Amino acid sequence: MAGPASRRRLRRLAALALLLALAPGPPAAWAGQAPRPAERGPPVRLFTEEELARYGGEEEDQPIYMAVKGVVFDVTSGKEFYGRGAPYNALTGKDSTRGVAKMSLDPADLTHDTTGLTAEELKSLDDIFTKVYKAKYPIVGYTARRILNEDGSPNLDFEPEDQPHFDTKDEF
Question: How far, in Å, CA of 163 to CA of 119, rounded?
């Protein structure tokens, strides 16, 4: 029977495998090249759960969006991973923060809720959020839950994410 240390190693290997599977090649810095500036996308916007659900990869002519930590990313360039019938399609059209943290496609984990995640899962979430999603996919908006409090008032702690193409003057 595997002990806790073996399970941690296995989970770390799974995280690395996911990162490598999602990356089309080594980062430019590994290849000795300067990173390309990101293309400037449309201004970011606020997404309700219903609006985000429209971008789940089911329509061929629609972009594919998913949210992690309340940040909505355009993952259309990874259509082979996120498009209809693809391995990670279940993550699209919603905030799948918990699923990303747990490396789970279980429908119960495809939620924004991080309650009860372990310190290791939270670290994994931060690593994947930064090294995969923020590094690779353009930010197109935020979930309403990230910007607004439950009573509809503005979340005064909200700060937009940094990305090379992100410009706060275009925000909303």
Answer: 26
Residue 163 and residue 133 in contact, taking contact as beta carbons nearer than 8 Å = no
What's the pTM value of the predicted model, to 2 decimals? Answer: 0.69
Q: Which of 78, 75, 79, 71 is nearest to 47 (CA)?
A: 71
Using alpha carbons only, give the angle 162, 160, 48 rounded to the nearest 5 degrees.
130
**Residue in this structure with the two tokens 């799974």, named with its chain if needed:** 14
What is the b/e burial string over 120-133, where b = at least 16 CB atoms within 10 angstroms of the residue's CB? Answer: ebeebbeebbeebb
Q: Are 54 and 63 in contact (CB under 8 A)?
A: no
Q: What is the pLDDT of residues 35-57, one digit of tens each?
A: 555 455 556 789 999 999 999 99
CB 25 within 8 A of CB 33: no
Question: Phi and psi at residue 6, in whole multiples of 5°?
Answer: -65, -40
Which amino acid would we find at residue 166? F
Query: What tokens appear for 151 in the block?
Result: 């009573």
